[in-house]
Amino acid sequence: MTSTSASRISGLNRLVHVWVAVVVLLVSIGEAAAQPKKVLFLHTFGPNFEQGTAWSREIQKELNRQSPWPLNIQEQSLVTALDGDDAAEAKFVEYIGALYAQRAPDLIVALGAPAARFVQQHKPDMFPKTPMLLAAVEVRRIEPSLLSEQDAVAGARYDQVAAIENVLRLLPETKAIAIILGNSPGERFWAGEHQRILGPLLKNKVELTFYGQQPLAEILEKVASLPPRTAIFYQQLSVDGAGAVYGDKEPLRRIADVANAPIFSFDETYFNGQIVGGPMFSPAEGARPMAAVAIRMLGGEKTSGIDPIGFSTPKYDWRQLQRWNISESRLPPGSEILFREPTVWERYSWQIALTTAVILLQAMLIASLLNAHRRRRLAEVQSRQRMKELAHVNRFSTAGELTATIAHEINQPLGSILTNAETLKLLLKSSPPDVEELNSIADDILRDDQRASEVIRRLRSVMRKAPFEPKRLNLNEVAQETVEFISALAVGRKVELRSLLAPVALPVIGDRIQLQQVITNLVVNAIDAMKDAPAGNRIIRIQTSRVEKFAELSVSDRGPGIPDNKLKEIFEPFFTSKPEGMGMGLSIARTIVEAHQGLISAKNRDHGGASFRIRIPLSDRL
């Protein structure tokens, strides 16, 4: 083989190697791009501790929302944070290292101060090249000297002074504050910080008492009998004085059940019905900038982090404000009040509006009906008044028609009185006078005088204008009196009145004058109807009877009758068959009968003439 051929083969081999290397590199890049970003969340305590879980949940939610890559988020808990066991911590380091030996996380997110301290101390041994984000860590718990260029801080600044000032703002008469803090290493750290910062600030003003070195049962007894003007500030109780471990919410719930003072806190995780509220950390708000830093670190950017987050807008539980009688005027400007119980209007607005509308409509309808009823009653009163006046006019008219008869009725007894008086005068001149004859003449004078008085009385009763006066009456008597009163007119018109009265009394409730007017109108109409009839056929029958629960009176004549097409009109106002009539007599008669709860009707007789019938309810007795 020549040197030229060997050179060519060597160059071909180099080219093949280059292509293989490129392919391998591209495959590896593709696999790396296809693999999700692995993020390790390291909790300070565990899933039972709601405060850390809430922050983790919100940060993960924001990571998934903001990330342009698929994410593989895994969580671990630092089991040694509660007791500070160094030997156990070393074993935990070995466990984490073995768990991620094949592939290290792309980012470690340490939640809480113990987790941050753990990662800072052991990261060189576990994942020296993995960037670390210290999230939701109070800046005083971070050791800056252990941070590398790959690490970033998205911490928080806990303003204890603002938290306590909130208590004193809402409860200015407070004399003591009971601070609930557990007995774990981190909780003991914060007890010292409170004494260092708040002690001098509140000296000789407010007494600070710490509960955490005692068992929870003893703490519950203490908070149930706190002195007046005491407030409770709950920070955390993960480990009590007896070494018992609790989840975040369990101690708070049990304390709230027995406490005789309002409870405050610093984290919205506890804002679920037990605490009053105030300026607090908000996991939902704080998670957004923290997740943004994590995304930048996953993208390979080096960052120192963000400024520490502080308290969010103060939030208060309306139910607790009401329970402890805290006025809303004491709240800081811009505060949010949550869990406000809706008013009756807010809860049932449309039902109340609908009901109110219905009631208003009903009220308007009732008012309209009452107004209509009032106007109708007024119209009825006015109508009755006009009808009374017309009835009175009708009586005058009837009396006018009877004038000649009345004059004749009065002249007869007056003439007899005059004759008897002259005779008496002559007898008195005789000697001796006839005493027996004188007594007989005197009796005749008295009888004639009574007869004249009775005629005048009847006329006055007809002419009298009186209100409706219902009384118990015997319809037979009313009919008999009316016949006697009108008999003179009947005699003058050559009409025979035949009275057929019921053999038993017919008790009714009514006005004597008005009932007499009805009968008079009917009889006078019957007399007028027979003016052209032969004299022997001029007969009017007035009959009373008892029909079931009614007293019935009928007036029948032998005149020409009523045209069939007019039977329904005869009781209407202004209907008349007389050239000189007003057409009000029968209308007035119907009104009077109906006012007595009765009925009036008319019909033609089979053998000629008309018959009018009135029915009035019977009364129990006279």
Tags for this entry?
alpha/beta; five-stranded mixed beta sheet; Rossmann fold; single chain; 622 residues; 49% helix
Protein model, in words:
With 622 residues, the chain is an alpha/beta fold. It folds into 4 domains: 144 residues, Response regulator (Rossmann fold); 152 residues, Response regulator (Rossmann fold, 3-Layer(aba) Sandwich), CATH 3.40.50.2300; 28 residues; 156 residues, Heat Shock Protein 90, CATH 3.30.565. Helix content is 49%, strand content 16%. It contains 17 helices and 19 strands. It has a 5-stranded parallel β-sheet with strand order 2-1-3-4-5. Strands 14-16-17-19-18 form a 5-stranded mixed β-sheet. Strand 3, helix 4 and strand 4 form a beta-alpha-beta unit. Helix 13 packs antiparallel against helix 14, helix 15 packs parallel to helix 16 and helix 16 runs antiparallel to helix 17. The longest helix is centred in the middle third of the chain and has 53 residues. It is rod-shaped and about 180 Å long. It starts with a helix and ends in a 5-residue tail after the last strand. About 2% of the residues have low confidence.
